[in-house]
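Q: Hi! First time asking for a complex rather than a single chain. Here are the components, and I think there are four in total. Is that enough to go on?
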Amino acid sequence: MEAEFKQVVSVDIALFTVHKAGLAVLLIRRERDPYQGCFALPGGFVHEDKDADATQTARRVLANKVGIVAQYLEQLYTFSGQVRDPRGWSVSIAYYALMPESLLPAPDDNRILISVDALPELPFDHAKIIAGGVERLRNKSTYSTLPAFLLPKQFTLNELHRIYQQVIGSDIDNSSFRRRIEAQEMVTPVEGSMKKGRQGRPAQVYQLSDTTLRQFRNCLMLME
Amino acid sequence: MEAEFKQVVSVDIALFTVHKAGLAVLLIRRERDPYQGCFALPGGFVHEDKDADATQTARRVLANKVGIVAQYLEQLYTFSGQVRDPRGWSVSIAYYALMPESLLPAPDDNRILISVDALPELPFDHAKIIAGGVERLRNKSTYSTLPAFLLPKQFTLNELHRIYQQVIGSDIDNSSFRRRIEAQEMVTPVEGSMKKGRQGRPAQVYQLSDTTLRQFRNCLMLME
DNA sequence: GGAATAGTGTCTCTCAGACACTATGAC
DNA sequence: GTCATAGTGTCTGAGAGACACTATTCC
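A: Yes, that's all I need. Here is the structure of the assembled complex.
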């Protein structure tokens, strides 16, 4: 009786990073049919026995297929229906994740970073997933420090400023940016830590404040 | 081989309306186990043969169990895992919907409206679904005309003002509110249509502008 | 000193909240 | 006229963009 209600459920993840001064997404070559050999988002089936919930599936896929633990992972939308997969009715729970490029394994023949402004044609709903992820990320960037997860844990304000501009794809006034970040106490200075570049004045090093990290965690907790 | 990957997938809907001057959600008495006889959100299994996708499942459930066509329906979050349902590993795609109270069937023994501030204990993840829906609705109310879907298609600005206040649960200055609504061209006046109350000056009748309706539709389309 | 990067001060314009005001109906 | 509801005008303060300015390092 219950068997007739069961569906194939998978998870797909748009992993974003900033690469070559712009927002990019990770694509991997598909090992199996359908679309074997094509580039697509990393994804996999939900396994009742291995995964406590779908978010764990997403973490398992990122660990196995990309070899990372994501700095930030958020559920995006669930796509479903008869036509999205040639194998028939299916459900895909889409996630997006953020990582600094420095913590990603080097791209190779089976794993590439592609600018979100120059995407090839993609199988399933993957183009929609990426578009939705970009929109959510850009939107959240206007009122939170989400792009900080595209940097290592410690960063300077100018690095954060640059990554914001690369995420939203347009310029932000540096002084307005600093005012906003500091007024909302989104970051805390790392005492005694200054970063020297090749030239110029050394910069104060910051990290996300406990308050900010707690907010991101609560925001996800509410839904899990 | 594929059978071991299949999951039970259902849809649950938090249907919001404004009732007794506050935001309320519809609960119906469960006809079957588990939790038979308890009040819970309307929901049902996805049927491959009847539903083109999960949003269609949501519409079918609202039609069958509540007898309505929702003015507004949006996917909220997908809950999954071993522990959320006593029958075992399951997936529930949660939606929220908005309706004017005047278009809902009268409450009875099996169908009640409960203030979101005075919820009883609820089965499954239903408390989380409602909390998530309330948060998304309140959040979207700060920058869109979403609460208009809690009113009939035509309304006066003061009716809209009242429903905003009831949704967010606090007062908004009337003149700021009108400025905002008119500046962003969210509504268009219905020519020659004035609404008389029992007393006082008659009010201009408005409806959501085509631009606004298109925006809501696009926002959903991106994800479907 | 100059070039490069980090960080600040200040002006202006816009917009939201507060709240006093006017307008038009029923009685 | 009063009461009730609809709708407007105006002041003020907070915040964003523009942009000129100072600060600290390497060479």
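A: Residues 172-173, 175-176, 179-180, 183, 196-202 of chain B lie near DNA strand C (CB under 10 Å from a C1'). Let me know if you'd like any chain examined more closely.
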